[in-house]
Amino acid sequence: MIVLKNLICLLLTFILILYSLAFCKIQHSSSDNIFQKDYPVIIIDAGHGGEDGGAVAGDGTLEKNINLHISLKLNDFMSVLGYKTRLIRNSDTDLHTSGNNIRERKVSDIRNRFEIMKKSGNSLYISIHQNKFSDSSVNGAQTFYSPNNDESKLLADFIQKSIASQLQKGNDRVIKRSGTDIFLLYNATKPTVMVECGFISNASDLNNLKNTKYQNEMALSIAMGILNYNISEVQNGSEI
Question: Do 4 and 34 meet the contact criterion of CB atoms below 8 Å apart?
Fold first, then answer.
């Protein structure tokens, strides 16, 4: 089983390397030296953490743990592609620095994540979450985007299409503009998206999301979406 998992990881890494080579070829075709470009840092935010478990599945599975597993794998893939990355958290913790109760600590946590975003310079902010709904038949990933710039919408579209084409063939969900209920997205100062990777209230989604191989495939699909977004920026002559 360990050997099989290692082979899967090697295969996924090889696929990303091929995409990376294609990306470099496109960059070389431009008049600028690729090593002089200001590449965006990929900020990967595993939602929730610590005392904030996020959504809870019927079998007791906590959203925060799935978020972290996928985020760590996404970080590995983006690093293989040569991007600088920053993990908001790499363990079961949160970012609160004040608060006398859970609500106050949650507000502190969100605002501290927001401060990291604001101070990050040239970056893309990718928030990883899982969804939950009262109707257990509802399933599939959906990507939300910040309303503050068109780049967020474009990034979300590439990620959503990558997940649908690579991993969830029957997923016909469309990207969705964030409202005031998602503080990080609504107030974002950088291209920012939230990827709801699936519904932990749906048995099939939950089984997949708990599976290491599927988590790798989800992380890979998101990584390919980010890469395709950056390729489009290069092709259109934009700085990334």
Answer: no
